[in-house]
Specification:
2 strands; mainly alpha; two-stranded parallel sheet; single chain; globular
């Protein structure tokens, strides 16, 4: 079964990839990521995987919060 990737998943992936490339994320960017993930009232499995990856990278300090 091939699940369609939602438009919000694509936008979410782009924002998360930018944070990973920069190795940093602002609180505003993080809030926007969460907003994109929840704007349709449903977090699909692609979005969950992306959010999990970002969270793990923050915990591992591969991506750092900046002011």
């Amino acid at each position: 079964m091939n699940e369609e990737v939602s438009e919000s998943s694509i936008r979410l992936k782009e924002m998360i990839e930018k944070a990973i490339e920069d190795h940093k994320i602002t609180r505003d960017e993080y809030d926007k990521i969460l907003h994109i993930a929840t704007e349709d009232g449903y977090i699909d499995r692609h979005e969950k995987a992306l959010l999990s990856q970002l969270q793990q990278m923050i915990e591992d300090r591969l991506v750092k919060f900046v002011i």
